[in-house]
Amino acid sequence: MIAFLDLKAPYLELQAEIDAAVARQMASGWYILGPEVEAFEAEFAAFAGAAHCVGLGNGLDALVLALRALDIGPGDEVIVPSNTYIATWLAVSQVGATPVPVEPDPATHCLDAQRVAEAITPRTRAVMPVHLYGQPADIDALTALCQRHGLRLVEDAAQAHGAALGTRQVGSTGDIVCWSFYPGKNLGAFGDGGAITTQDAGLARRVALLRNYGSAVKYVNIEKGANSRLDPIHAAVMRVKLPHLLAWNQRRAAIAELYQQRLQGLPLGLPAAAPGTTHAWHLYVVTTPQRDALQAHLTAAGIGTLIHYPIPPFRQDAYREFADRAPQWPLADRLAREVLSLPMGPHLGLAQAAAVADAVAGFFHD
Ligand SMILES: *Cc1c(COP(=O)(O)O)cnc(C)c1O
């Protein structure tokens, strides 16, 4: 049996340190925000090359509060990928704005800047690229486009901890960058967690207000905020994990390299880091029209796989108002039929990855 992802392995690797950090946090008597969260925010900001980090309750809230901090709301349009996880769209809907789907570049699965340009209207306020699967989106082209049209760039980096564009870390570009620490992400908490990073002190202050009832001074509320605070216990755990993140990403990259070497030549679309970028390899996603049969073959061989994602947002009942226009996004539809995520993670052994690759090759050779 080869699991898609071993969620317990990072804990076991760092058990003594994590146990000590959790015990220290429990004994501190401080259970909301406070020094542990502040220390994590400073360390994660430094990691991401950002001046500011604000810890939040989850990744969806990070996206929502980023849009609220930019005063995006009813009547506004926000450009989102047609092929993302639904959270990106839900954030736009939660603030009362309208998601405008744009198709990806088939090579990177990330927003195609040319198509984004064509989707801009007088109501467009922001562009929300997703660094999907850990591949940085084309931030240079999107930044230029946003500057030309006076738009905000809000990045969904929920899958891209440690990814980079040249020497710039993901987290250091754009107006505001949104993170999730859901347990399965490259940096995961022991429950829900999220954050924003930004170079803009004003935006950071606004998100810090919004996450805490719109209040900076207890019982003084200057706007209608939310309750979405990163828990200090998760901050304590992630402070132990963060120094290992880049080495863990390197182990992911070694698995991606092994897959690339063993799978090339098969009738299978393989992912590759776009030139000049460091991929975080959150997921290793292959494409084939025979996806369902390949997945069944791997399941029978005891190999866990997942599909990210089987139903595009515009085909979900939650977005039934898009159903009539669904044929406008054929690439997202094709990807939903063809993508398959192979086992990937820092604790997957190279021998296990080789066995996965052999099983995939066996499907095509039998
Ligand atoms: C995980 C994820 C989110 C949401 O994060 P949560 O912490 O689960 O709310 C948002 N966008 C993308 C692309 C994700 O993968």
UniProtKB/TrEMBL annotation:
<keyword id="KW-0808">Transferase</keyword>
<dbReference type="Pfam" id="PF01041">
    <property type="entry name" value="DegT_DnrJ_EryC1"/>
</dbReference>
<dbReference type="InterPro" id="IPR015424">
    <property type="entry name" value="PyrdxlP-dep_Trfase"/>
</dbReference>
<feature type="active site" description="Proton acceptor">
    <location>
        <position position="185"/>
    </location>
</feature>
<dbReference type="GO" id="GO:0030170">
    <property type="term" value="F:pyridoxal phosphate binding"/>
</dbReference>
<comment type="similarity">
    <text>Belongs to the DegT/DnrJ/EryC1 family.</text>
</comment>
<dbReference type="InterPro" id="IPR015421">
    <property type="entry name" value="PyrdxlP-dep_Trfase_major"/>
</dbReference>
<dbReference type="GO" id="GO:0008483">
    <property type="term" value="F:transaminase activity"/>
</dbReference>
<keyword id="KW-0663">Pyridoxal phosphate</keyword>
<protein>
    <submittedName>
        <fullName>Aminotransferase</fullName>
    </submittedName>
</protein>
<keyword id="KW-0032">Aminotransferase</keyword>
<feature type="modified residue" description="N6-(pyridoxal phosphate)lysine">
    <location>
        <position position="185"/>
    </location>
</feature>
<dbReference type="GO" id="GO:0000271">
    <property type="term" value="P:polysaccharide biosynthetic process"/>
</dbReference>
<dbReference type="InterPro" id="IPR015422">
    <property type="entry name" value="PyrdxlP-dep_Trfase_small"/>
</dbReference>
<dbReference type="InterPro" id="IPR000653">
    <property type="entry name" value="DegT/StrS_aminotransferase"/>
</dbReference>
